Amino acid sequence: MSITVPEEGLLARAARFSPPRRYLPVLGTFALFIGMFGVGGIRYEGFADPQVFLTLLLDNAFLIVLAVGMTFVILTGGIDLSVGSNVALSTLIAARTLELGWPVVAVIGVVLLAGTLLGTAMGLLIHYFDIQPFIATLAGMFLARGLCYLISVDSIPIKDETFSAIAFGSITLPGGYYLGWTAVFALVIVAVAAYVLSSTRFGRTVYALGGSEPSALLMGLPVAATKVGVYAISGLCAALGGLLFALYTLSGYSLHAVGMELDAIAAVVIGGTLLTGGRGFVIGSLLGVLVLGTIQTFISFDGTLSSWWTRITIGVLVLVFVVAQRVLTRR
Amino acid sequence: MSQAEVKPPGPVVEMLDVSITFGAVRALDEVSLRLLPGEVHALMGENGAGKSTLIKALTGVYTIDSGRVVIDGVETQFATPAAAQHAGISTVYQEVNLVPNLTVAENMLLGREPRRLGRIDRREMNRRAAASLQALGIDVDPASELGSHPIAVQQLVAIARAVDTDARVLILDEPTSSLDADEVARLFEVMRRLRDHGTAIVFVSHFLDQVFEISDRMTILRNGRVVGERLVEETTQLELVQLMIGRDLQVLERLDHAAHEATEETSAEQRLPVLSAVGLGRKGSLEATDLNLYAGEVVGIAGLLGSGRTELARLLFGADAPDTGDLTVKGSSRRRLRSPRHAIDRKLAFCSEDRKAEGVFGELSVADNMLLGLQASRGWLRPIPAITRSTLVSEFMTALDIRPADPSLPMRSLSGGNQQKVLLARWLITEPDVLLLDEPTRGIDIGAKTQIQQLVADLAEKGMSVVFISAELEEVLRLSHRLVVLKDRRKIAERPNRGIDVNDVLEIITGEPGGLVEKEWADA
């Protein structure tokens, strides 16, 4: 069956264009981000420089990766509180194994394995023992944080040359701008995740789970594998985020990333993903992180504002977005 | 799919002496079921007879305790619904079991999406979905979000999904309950076509006419046991009903007489209304309406779907705030009842049509569900004494014949009809003056229906004022003393129920002679 679309002027079509409802929250976040950058550009000299935006990506690379993993979990209607502690644990495992002289590849492998295992274990608990995600990942959060102290109470510096090279390495863009490797990596993760969610069976099952778990079960979808899978992915993303954080700070420390899981959740919510699951996009979470980062940039450019304004703004934004979602999805 | 001319001789599904026990309840007791290829097999029984349990036992949702399931001559036990689906047994459950946040096409092909190099081929998916929808004559954009369509369309999509799997066995659990006559006809067409291609179809429905129209053979269940396996052409509706409920239908006839005798008495008396609405209305839901309710009288509300039946009940109860009008409860006037809580204080009770969402607390016990209303009206600080609790509960369990007769069972384990009775009991315990019943008999079986109708008649006789809303006109006419007819969110007629029959009401609504539109009425 072929459908012939009648020829139509581009302008006429653009004028009639109204985005489907499900894209509205993401577009809202995008507009907010653009608006904030616009205001910043007018108020502060140098704010509108593209390098500010590129640095924003670099400074938040780890949070972007965390938010990607969190998006998978929240889309199924779950939550993962363990990712902050998982990041700290990852930085410590990396720093400690490097200190012991392990090769970089082995270090990365161990970190990713540990993070994924933690996530998988929580996923298994959540699915097979029917434990609420909040509780299971709360336990995971304490466990991971506790394990950090087992490795080291003090901060361990990372002096490995490969690590430093990646940390300070960047690609040069036309016009003399540069983008750090870690930021490039984070963007690749976002792209992969967006592809998985939109174009694979696993991704569609994630959305189906968030829509109605009993239905998904009766439709014969692989509910167990998918549910455990999203927590494994979140764990993996936390480990990746941990590696990026280790690169960012060049250290491993048990007090790293305290409360970072809440930043990730806030970013996902501001990015328009519904906390009850089934609706949202990874690209929204990326925008959510960028909005959070822009607030911080704002404050550092201003110089007279205190840093707690970051928190206050995030609080207000999360509230506004949750209420807006309610209003949008009411009917 | 097998060729029509060489049908395999044996049954495609054979369930032998299957038993399932939930706690102390024996849900299935040595039930046997035979499905032949190329037949529509009706599974009949009251609510709680074990139809759904039997289906779920076959499709791997429940594990059977004893007995055998033989598919194509091979003994099988499906571990999951996915395994059953894979073996060619597709099910459309009573409640639409799809995900509202994905598109129609995604819902139809979820788990079987066409892929190219591991990537979901969205265009191919929409094309395939459009083709199967078109084959069923369903006019829906496959790329639209499922949740944006009405339930009837979602139901058809669910059926399209099941049909699309090339199922050898297609199980349809109450597929027609939310479809109108045209949609039912279309569904039957599809069912016949599938049957002629050798598919075995299990059809569960409360609509006897539909069962007799489409089915070839039927298995009748009662209380978890098989009480008969018949050829449809050799069975009458009366025989079937007697098998299903195990008692005869004279109760209904007695009701007819009771209602009409009462009519004579009530109209003779002039009394003060218990509840009186003057110009009660709300923008977008009901135009300004006058209505008086008297003690000891059943007021039937008749009207098509969307005529404002439920809206009227909600306004009377204060569940929606009216824009205009006055509501007087026993002489004390108030512009509006502020909230349901307020209404309960004034001895009003409202049984919602959506018992799943607005009435049942599935995890709480039957006893707790029953006592919720009373506890709410007493206030949370005054607990109900244990003795009063158990007396009240056992009294109403017996009076309403709630089965299984164990008040400690969780509410969700009861069948629809019995849940409805528990909800009725919840309100009756609060001893209301006015009882608003919105579709109290929808989706429940004939036995429970009769009991609830009997109860309504009894309550009115004892002096309660009852508002009875139902899409089934016969039922409204049987019970009511006075009839209010709504159309397009407006009251168009109010008259005593004397000598009115279905055709008269249809005439009132349509302005045409009733006989012509009787079929349409059945849709509502």
From TrEMBL, chain A:
<feature type="transmembrane region" description="Helical">
    <location>
        <begin position="262"/>
        <end position="288"/>
    </location>
</feature>
<dbReference type="InterPro" id="IPR001851">
    <property type="entry name" value="ABC_transp_permease"/>
</dbReference>
<dbReference type="GO" id="GO:0022857">
    <property type="term" value="F:transmembrane transporter activity"/>
</dbReference>
<protein>
    <submittedName>
        <fullName>Sugar ABC transporter permease YjfF</fullName>
    </submittedName>
</protein>
<feature type="transmembrane region" description="Helical">
    <location>
        <begin position="104"/>
        <end position="128"/>
    </location>
</feature>
<dbReference type="GO" id="GO:0005886">
    <property type="term" value="C:plasma membrane"/>
</dbReference>
<feature type="transmembrane region" description="Helical">
    <location>
        <begin position="134"/>
        <end position="156"/>
    </location>
</feature>
<keyword id="KW-0472">Membrane</keyword>
<feature type="transmembrane region" description="Helical">
    <location>
        <begin position="23"/>
        <end position="42"/>
    </location>
</feature>
<keyword id="KW-1003">Cell membrane</keyword>
<keyword id="KW-1133">Transmembrane helix</keyword>
<keyword id="KW-0812">Transmembrane</keyword>
<feature type="transmembrane region" description="Helical">
    <location>
        <begin position="177"/>
        <end position="197"/>
    </location>
</feature>
<feature type="transmembrane region" description="Helical">
    <location>
        <begin position="228"/>
        <end position="250"/>
    </location>
</feature>
<feature type="transmembrane region" description="Helical">
    <location>
        <begin position="308"/>
        <end position="328"/>
    </location>
</feature>
<dbReference type="Pfam" id="PF02653">
    <property type="entry name" value="BPD_transp_2"/>
</dbReference>
<feature type="transmembrane region" description="Helical">
    <location>
        <begin position="62"/>
        <end position="83"/>
    </location>
</feature>
TrEMBL record, chain B:
<feature type="domain" description="ABC transporter">
    <location>
        <begin position="13"/>
        <end position="248"/>
    </location>
</feature>
<keyword id="KW-0547">Nucleotide-binding</keyword>
<protein>
    <submittedName>
        <fullName>Sugar ABC transporter ATP-binding protein</fullName>
    </submittedName>
</protein>
<dbReference type="GO" id="GO:0005524">
    <property type="term" value="F:ATP binding"/>
</dbReference>
<dbReference type="Pfam" id="PF00005">
    <property type="entry name" value="ABC_tran"/>
</dbReference>
<dbReference type="InterPro" id="IPR050107">
    <property type="entry name" value="ABC_carbohydrate_import_ATPase"/>
</dbReference>
<dbReference type="InterPro" id="IPR003439">
    <property type="entry name" value="ABC_transporter-like_ATP-bd"/>
</dbReference>
<keyword id="KW-0677">Repeat</keyword>
<dbReference type="GO" id="GO:0005886">
    <property type="term" value="C:plasma membrane"/>
</dbReference>
<keyword id="KW-1003">Cell membrane</keyword>
<dbReference type="InterPro" id="IPR017871">
    <property type="entry name" value="ABC_transporter-like_CS"/>
</dbReference>
<dbReference type="GO" id="GO:0016887">
    <property type="term" value="F:ATP hydrolysis activity"/>
</dbReference>
<dbReference type="InterPro" id="IPR003593">
    <property type="entry name" value="AAA+_ATPase"/>
</dbReference>
<keyword id="KW-0472">Membrane</keyword>
<keyword id="KW-1278">Translocase</keyword>
<dbReference type="InterPro" id="IPR027417">
    <property type="entry name" value="P-loop_NTPase"/>
</dbReference>
<keyword id="KW-0067">ATP-binding</keyword>
<feature type="domain" description="ABC transporter">
    <location>
        <begin position="270"/>
        <end position="513"/>
    </location>
</feature>
<keyword id="KW-0813">Transport</keyword>
